[in-house]
Design goal:
- By secondary structure, the chain is of the alpha+beta class.
- It has one domain: 60s Ribosomal Protein L30, Chain: A (2-Layer Sandwich), CATH 3.30.1330.
- Helices cover about 20% and strands about 35% of the residues.
- It has helices spanning about 30-40, 70-80, and strands spanning about 1-5, 10-15, 15-20, 55-60, 95-105, 105-115.
- Helix 1 (about 30-40) runs parallel beside helix 2.
- The longest helix has 15 residues, at about 30-40.
Length: about 130
């Protein structure tokens, strides 16, 4: 199922959701407002889920365009814009992967996936080098 034909699209596959933002601005404040407005219009029927989530963000930037999205700023704007739709609070996001690469368009894709039992604890010692 997909909704929205404009610069933001939302689709589902099972419990996973994919939000694609075309012609993404380099201004994260504007990005947050833009995505929030789309979610209010097109995704108002979505009820926030309980539990934990994994969010993966891919940011494609054109090499010749000025300005580049900082992966942390994009992640914050996206998580804030999606709060209240997929999750009640972005503290429910326990795994976050945000990547930026050079592509043929300024585009952001966000995959939201419920994790069920969350993330297993990790020994926070030197063993992290082995992961």
């Amino acid at each position: 199922m997909a909704s929205g034909r404009s610069k933001v699209r939302l689709s589902y596959r099972g419990q996973e959701a994919l939000v694609v933002i075309d012609a993404a601005t380099t201004q994260t404040r504007a990005l947050k407002k833009y995505v929030s407005a789309f979610m209010r219009r097109e995704a108002a029927r979505i009820r926030p889920w309980f539990g934990t989530f994994e969010v993966r963000i891919w940011t494609s930037v054109m090499a010749h365009k000025k300005g580049a999205h900082d992966v942390d700023n994009v992640a914050k704007a996206v998580l804030d814009a999606l709060s209240g739709y997929f999750w009640r609070d972005d503290r429910q996001v326990v795994r976050l992967i945000s990547e930026r690469f050079e592509g043929d368009a300024n585009r952001i894709a966000v995959r939201v996936r419920p994790l069920g039992d969350g993330v297993a604890p990790v020994d926070m010692g030197e063993g992290l080098f082995d992961l």
